[in-house]
Amino acid sequence: xxxxxxxTFLKGTGAAAGTLAAEELLFGKGKSLxxxxxxxxxxxxxxxxxxxxxxWIGKQDCGLKARRFGDRVVKLEGNPAHPRNVGxxxxxxxxxxxxxYDPNRLRRPLIxxxxxxxxxxxxxxxxxxxxxxxxxxxxxxxxxxxKLVVWQKGRSKSSALYDTAFTAALGTEKLHHGAFCSDAxxxxxxxxxxxxxxxxxxxxxxxxxxxxxxxLTAGGGNKLCWITFPRQFINARERGMKVVSIDPRRHGxxxxxxxxxxxxxxxDLALALALANEIVRLGTLDTEYLVKYTNAPFLVGEDxxxxxxxxxxxxxxxxxxxxxxxxxxGVSPALEGSYRVQGQNAKTAFELFKEHIREYTxxxxxxxxxxxxxxxxxxxxxxxxxxxxxxxxxxDGVEVAYRPVGIHTYHMAQQELGFQTVRAMLLVMMLVGAVxxxxxxxxxxxxxxxxxxxxxxxxxxxxxxxxxxxxxxKWFPINSNNTAVVSLxxxxxxxxxxxxxxxxxIVHMAxxxxxxxSQRDIVEGLKKIPFIVVIDPWLSKTADxxxxxxxxxxxxxxxxxxxxxGDIYTDAVALRLPLMKPLGESRxxxxxxxxxxxxxxxxxxxxxxxxxxxQALGLKDEFALPLDKKPTPEEIFDRWAxxxxxxxxxxxxxxxxxxxxxxxxxxxxxGWAAEPRFGGIRHRFYGESLLSAQRQMKAAGAxxxxxxxxTPFPTxxxxxxxxxxxxxxxxxxxYKLIEFKQSRGHQLPLVAELAPKQHLWMNxxxxxxxxxxxxxxxxxxxxxxxxxxxxxVRARVAxxxxxxxDTVGLPHHFGGEARHPWAAxxxxxxxxxxxxxxxxxxxxxxxxxxxKVRVYRAKEA
Amino acid sequence: xxxxxxxIDLSRCMGCRACMVACKVENNTPEGxxxxxxxxxxxxxxxxxxxxxxxxxxxxxDNAPCVKVCPVGARYxxxxxxxxxxxxxxxxxxxxxxxxxxxxxxxxxxxxxKGQYLKWGDDAEVRERAEREVxxxxxxxxxxxxxxxxxxxxxxxxxxxxxxxxxxxxxxxEKGLEPACVANCPxxxxxxxxxxxxxxxxxxxxxxxxxxRLLEDVGTEPRVYYLNGQPPTGEHRQLDAVKxxxxx
Lengths: 861, 248
Known about the structure:
The complex is a heterodimer of chains A (861) and B (248). By secondary structure, chain A is α/β, with parallel strands linked by helices.
């Protein structure tokens, strides 16, 4: 039956939309109507095909497959075989299809023609000219000192090729984004239990998950992220896992909690200490774990340092009633008590801990945290009861200690007392032996001891001059490497004891001018670097304000990897494969770096980029790339795949997208089951080296703000922001939204449409008290309690009962991320209101995302 | 003949709106049109605040008001349960939009090739790369006809002046695939299948969970069942309402 429909007829007469259609039909320029009449497609369709790749926009590199007709990609879907996302995509992953076609993407290199620090004026250049210019600057800087070239990453989609091999080939200084992410938590876990991670529960067996500031519904989990944690979480909920959510804001946990504890921002350390106090008072502790696997039984002398004989820490042996080395044959250490040893009154570290936390009662904490004492007691009891101290289960044939309670925390670590707060959380979990137990407290995907554990055991403060991130300085013996601190240094190097200042910066998949807490300092500091290269698919805010050269990066049109693809329980690896030809002359970062190394004479030969790639990817013998021939990305990954034992090489990933290697052994995952247990180290219950570091810092003349938190046990003090004048009566918090990723989200219109404008989220009671209603334009003004400086931005009010009345929220991701029609005029970025410097950075140089603000209608002065 | 239905498990939903974006890419809907919409609802007063995330596709009602009011028979219900729009019959009178109590209908005020997020046609290189399709992710499935009735019923990029709404992805269902929202949900909120088949996923879910349907009292008899939750009430307030485009 097929049909000239009424609609086709109208088209033909030109009466409706489409004069062009009318012309085609009437003057025979276009398609015949006969195929339509027969119900056929007018022209033969391009062949449908599917191609595998990995998501580019987010953190997890979720496996995806692209539906194509000919060369045209029409949809992205999840790869069902990929353990992390199992055939699904989050809204960002689904929306990134527009990036493949976005006319606002950069097609050719740009060279700046005006001064930096203001919106850029650029001219287009060829790749030859741009690479030559970049190479010239790099060569000049390296000739003096390779560290005068700085590589600043935000996200790296191939740490082997970029973070390791490229920076090694050039010998650059490396900066990253961890200080704005969760690195204070990483440092706390590296220090205490030797793992490179923050905290997440073993959802497979967990019975009580404590989500501490963890933004489940939007992102921000420990190491993994969307999609994997929500999947594991929801399955655990279905199994009956209980959840307690500790968060000033409700939305992070959504409906998925049994209890919401809306804690006062910045008081988390007080809550953790009170939980420890109550658990110790209840008296049910994992004594075996504390005695055998931590330094809690070690004897501490009157000077706060461990007592030692022959370099070995001493314990009080209850069998012989004498002090013995901790690893003496048949020793039976006391966990508590005071003893006379080496002419001193010595106490076990645990005894000192009991004294230390004595004042930190739930009643004390209630006043600080605004959490009722009874609720604190209930939570402590739930932790103890759920922990089932002493029990075990069998996992894949291996008997593992079973303590099915765990904390999930990550970005919450980036507050002024974050390092000690995460340490305090660890101590709480250590009291019940949950660290590294089945169902309990995990930190890294495998129980591998990080080099920082040993390094942090003997912290040393060195003499100036310091490098630009003040490594080993008198201010930050533990130092996460913070670009905001670098920006302070660049503004006043003499003050910070820095002499060598960078000459070239390469910015890789990062938008520091927008996102790195304290926007003003970042721009003022970084603009002092003489030559900045930004690699980005769009003209990001950072490129706009700070780039001398912008190199256009491709998105899903490149090879990258190897990409970790495991979900904690299953091990897997994947690659990013190009789905289309690059748009314009955009290129992969890998190809850009091969060119830069070639042009700077650092590509070929020993220690060149090719050699570094061989080492970073483990390419040996017949798989090693020859050091005298410039490789293509395909050659690199084909060799890598074959070196893994995949005979088909790259074709394996073209056909499957991901290589699933199999289940992770419980011996690798759980510290209790590792051989040796916990990697053979003693967990640092007592932080002796923190005390030693404090003494060195004082002796070196560091200011109090730097050394005051270097204490062996986490110690409460009110955050600096609490000293702001009383009119700054609201806490400002920031958080991620599920629609966006870091500072590259608004460039995807399909998600930008879901959250086009920034809002200041307020509790209706707080709004009413200030005469404000939803939609009102307000000034949000922050105050630096140390310097007295204030900053303010304009935003529109949105109301929610899901936030404390004394707290307002300004989400991340806004502020004009790039020159893009969907990113313009979207409202202020949160980082425009935070500070960096004393009181607003941590003892580990990590950023603090807390500040006090006041909010008032925008019409007032 | 299958009797298609959808279940939506409210105890699983994270409110991420991936289903909204998956639907949009699959069906090529323009700015401001959300054939799948997710409500982020809040109720209660701090600190007794509660959140509910509620995905709302077309309900494909057995007693569909939109079918009853369509003057030209463009809106019709198939034997398998899908309620569809024949874009070539539709005259854009918008009676279905008025009649539907769920607000799932969208009128194409302009050509659906306008308001497609970016200016795809202005740039020669982009135009060629997209093979002149607007949006570039134009889904060729929509150019085909579906059902024994052979009607043009899939996707959004057809004509100015007609209605659009969720089709349960008729073009996917006829290929034995799940609707895009169902297939893509990161935490498997949705199931879709045959109510007449006791072993279908929807039958399983309906046996094991409490359920409600939206606006049960008005007698529309939806084919969408909400599990493990409570119907929204007048006490619920919407957060993060999506108006469409770059607006507020």
